[in-house]
Amino acid sequence: MSDQTPVDFDAYWQQTLDDLAHYPVCPEIDMLPLRSTAFATLYGVRLTSLGPYRVFGYLSIPTGTGPFPAIYYPPKYQSVLEIIGQGSTNLQRSRYITFALAGRGQRHADTPYAAMFPGLLTEGIDSAASYIFRGIVADSVRGLNFLLTRRELDAARVVVMGNDMACITAALSAGVTHVVTAPALFYNTAELAPRTQVYPLEEINDYLRMFPARAEAVRHTLAYYDLRAFAPRVTATTLLMAGAPGTLLDGPALAPLVTALQGQVTVYDSAQSNYKDGLYVEQWMAAQCGITDVQSILPEHWRS
Amino acid sequence: MSQVVPVDYQSKVHKPDDFDAFWDDVLRQVAAIPLQAEVVPDRLRTSEDVEVFQVFYTSLEHVRIAAWYCRPARRAARTPAILLLPGYQADPPIPKEWARKGYIALSVAPRGKLRSARQFNPGYPNLLTYNIVDRHTYAYRGFYVDTWRGMDFLLSRPEVEPGRIGVTGSSQGGGLTITTAAMRSEVRAAAAGAPYLCGFMDAIALTHTYPYEEINDYLRLHPESRPRVEETVAYFDGINFADQISCPIIVNIGLQDNVCPPETGYALFNKIGATDKQLYTYDGHGHDAGRAQHSAIVDRFLAHHLLAEG
After folding, report:
1. Residue B170: which domain range?
2. Order of strands, edge to edge, in the sheet holding A265-269?
3. I need a surface site. Which of A65, A218, B165, B173 has the fewest CB within 10 A?
């Protein structure tokens, strides 16, 4: 853990998980014919999370007999929920179970709370107990735990792919075998935000400009979410997507995180190309999951 | 290395005979609707160097549209402006960085986007196929107009230099840049990246990624609707707007773009009517379309035409 880690970090998250466990999952699963194909069936899934709060996800199950590897997409930092990540071909769903979750505030999970973007990052940030991301992390854990109950799933091949939420979810849940994480929100945030004017971190700057007296409270809350504090709990094999050299979250900046992660770690430095970066991730996941014909599920313009 | 993209790719889209009449009718309808602009200061987002406002105005079918409006704290009485148009699933950004470059900037959230979804909200995925069998109610009919109304808002502002308004965006924002530059003669310069909404029916055969995959989903469930779908999207295809563009324009595409196929980028560029046009192609790049390198080119291009630099 980092020197900044609160002494009650473990207790804070254990209490969150305990509070979450108080609510039964109560899944509702509806097939969505419009997005189902010959090679995969799509379902809309509703689950109860901390609050209680009802969240939503898109679950895709490949046609055929499993077990199948799975990709879990925890809540992104945007209002829209995608079925799979933009840029991945729909054929990804022929080989992987995919489950994409909308955390509270995102579309399909925006009643009664509708998040603003920008705005979500500082919602309730002056109190660790009421910070919106405590609920969103719980949502993400709940989504993963739901996915792990699927009988079609191969428990030896479970990838969590996303921003900071991928790393945090893997730290707080058993059953994750692989992580693809691109830190953006919760790595050394209190120190890095003043060094940029780019959203989403600019939200922190906006907030502290308006409420300078709350700076210490914000710093205190962010310490519960810092990836360096979660990293010692992450034992999954990890692909860490670093920013391009010279950017705020490049490989050297993330070095302490690499050291703290407990599983095998590969660091990929962004080439600032969706093609090169995306191709690397698709090939890495396929190799880790034993998919030998990755060419067949790559986008047409990426194939050799 | 990936496949070679034909630079002379021919789109299958045909321009309907009544294309201009269709849009003239739409413009007549919206012209009768007052803009009713509200400009609300946003103290939380305002900083020493940039003033930020939330803007609301009325568009087609009386739908209220939200936008972010930024202006340099220190500026001339009349300042050049940029209209920023959003990606398909992106939440429209607060364009502070454009204000820091010396522009007044308006970042529009067309109907269905966050903050503009109270009266119209088909959702994502779904926007692309919402009423796609009827050009008179298709989602993008109002969506396009919402962006053009952004020009009306800028032109209504006394602090905006009306002869120096540019438009830019990437992906859906690139497609909307094309349609806006075509339909609004006040646009002085345009920069379109990885343009979406160009070659709809070509794209659904060339790629199987979302959002274009929404149309394949729709046609798989409703195969009998293909002729109606083709008929509708022809009225909204950026390639059919392109010959009306007369302002200086640059377009950038990634040759490994798996979201908006580069073939459609070539087809679009070849149809652009402006004589002052340039295409930048980025090999080794996907839907980013070389943004990390190209953003400096966009900055120079817009500064040259709008800030009278270079």
Report:
1. 19-35+78-88+105-307
2. A28-31, A40-49, A53-62, A97-102, A68-73, A153-162, A178-181, A237-242, A265-269
3. A65
Q: How do residues A30-77 score in pLDDT, each as one tens digit? A: 999 999 999 999 999 999 999 999 999 999 999 999 999 999 999 999
Please give the pLDDT value at position A304. 86
Q: How confident is the model at residue B308 (pLDDT cuts 50, 70, 90)?
A: confident
In a domain, B99, yes or no: no
Share of chain B above pLDDT 90, in %: 97
Q: How confident is the model at residue B6 (pLDDT cuts 50, 70, 90)?
A: confident
Give the closest-approach CA distance of A69 to chain B in angstroms. 20
**How far apart are the C-alpha atoms of A68 and A63, rounded to whole Å?**
10
Q: A87, B259: Cβ pair inside 8 Å? A: yes
Q: Tell me if B72 is assigned to some domain.
A: no
| Residue B59 within a domain | no
Distance CA B123, CA B18 (A): 30
Using DSSP's 3-state secondary structure scheme, residue B124 falls into: coil
Q: Is A35 helix (H, G, I), strand (E, B) or coil?
A: helix
- At A240, give phi and psi (nearest 5°): -100, 115
Strands A53-62, B187-193: pairing is: unpaired
Count of domains observed in chain B: 1
CATH number 3.40.50.1820 given to A9-302: yes
Say yes or no for a CB contact (<8 Å) between B206 and A300: yes
Measured CB to CB, residues of chain A less than 8 Å from chain B are 33-35, 37, 78-84, 86-91, 107-108, 116-118, 197-199, 202, 205-207, 209-210, 244, 271-276, 278, 299-304
In a domain, B49, yes or no: no
ipTM: 0.96
- Among the listed residues B49, B144, B150, B153, the one whose alpha carbon sits nearest the alpha carbon of residue B103: B49
